[in-house]
Amino acid sequence: MSNPFKSVPIRSYEITPKDVYFSRRDFIKAAGVVAGSVALASCAPNAGEPSEATVAAENPVTISGKTTDELGDPLNSFQDITNYNNYYEFTTDKEGVAPLSQGFTPKPWSVEVSGMVKKPKIYAFEDLLKNFTQEERIYRLRCVEAWSMVIPWTGFTLASLLNEVEPTSDAKYVRFETVMRPEEMKGQGSPFYPWPYQEGLRLDEAMNDLTLLATGLYGEDMPNQNGAPIRLVVPWKYGFKSIKSIVKIELTDKQPETLWNTTAPNEYGFYSNVNPAVDHPRWSQASERRIGELSRRATLPFNGYGDQVASLYEGMDLSVHY
Ligand SMILES: Nc1nc2c(c(=O)[nH]1)N[C@H]1C(S)=C(S)[C@@H](COP(=O)(O)O)O[C@H]1N2
Ligand SMILES: [Mo]
């Protein structure tokens, strides 16, 4: 994997006029996101597999114009982010997800928000874009397999959606479910996993400002392989908590079952906070390989977001609640 940002700076000729950009992503304008710079119109996720040189020249720019995360580390390229994926509904082969997911149809789409809420509602995807402020968030994604990337997501906070449906005082957890479409997702024929993919958060984790419902990346609509049209992003937890292609969000008073906890409870707990001090039973979690880098780097507690989230776990033994 190479990282074009290291050697090839974004050049001014890659920047298209604002009106071209907004015609492509008019929801961002509608939702009031200020574009500091604009993305390249021709770089669509389905545009085939250009050569490495082409990719480097055409990597889209972010909405904010930023090229690093807040720690100063470069963003991964659009090419890396969209060709090295975990999405077991398609295949367990990370480089096979992109080609196998191209026939998936993310539209029309709706998300049902139900359970312990005062105002249950089925949202059409378009209304989620229109009604909630879309913003860009550059987050590290740290997979439990010990690789990582820096990804510029666009989306809206889960808190903004939950505030609208008004959880009741009984609600303690949020459960998420991925679409079940075995015809389009051949991996769902595998008997080794309890489909559909499910995930869960404690309500206070779900309400944290970092927790995002992402609808795109690099200013593009969410590519199929990254969880089109809408997926969760919880940057202080291992990547598998960030469930893709969500159709159901349910408020509940019971800790939800999750696909990975059900499949291998001794390896994957409910919390799954990034924690360099607690190893996976089969490998160390002390360091990671940032895609695009040669040597390993230290893994940060809570993936570097401890200031915002460590207080959620005060008094808990995180080697027990792994
Ligand atoms: N529905 C679903 N969501 C999923 C997965 C999956 O297999 N199915 N894989 C998870 C894992 S293990 C990781 S690391 C991230 C990867 O997200 P990315 O492909 O956008 O980088 O998605 C997570 N969300
Ligand atoms: Mo992962």
Description:
Helices cover 19% and strands 20% of the residues. It is α+β, with helices and mostly antiparallel strands. The longest helix is centred in the middle third of the chain and has 8 residues, at 158-165. The radius of gyration is 19 Å and the shape is globular. The model is unreliable at 1-48 (pLDDT under 50).
Give the tags.
322 residues; Sulfite Oxidase, Chain A, domain 2; seven-stranded mixed sheet; 11 helices; disordered N terminus; binds ligand MTE; binds molybdenum atom
How are the elements arranged and paired?
Blueprint lengths: L3 H4 L10 H7 L1 H5 L21 H7 L19 H4 L15 H4 L9 E6 L5 E4 H7 L3 E8 L4 E11 H8 L7 E6 L19 E5 H5 L4 E6 L2 E2 L9 E3 L12 E7 L6 H5 L23 E4 L6 E2 L7 H4 L13
Parallel strand pairs: 1-10, 4-11
Antiparallel strand pairs: 1-2, 3-4, 4-7, 5-6, 5-10, 7-8, 7-9, 11-12
This protein binds ligand MTE and molybdenum atom (MO).
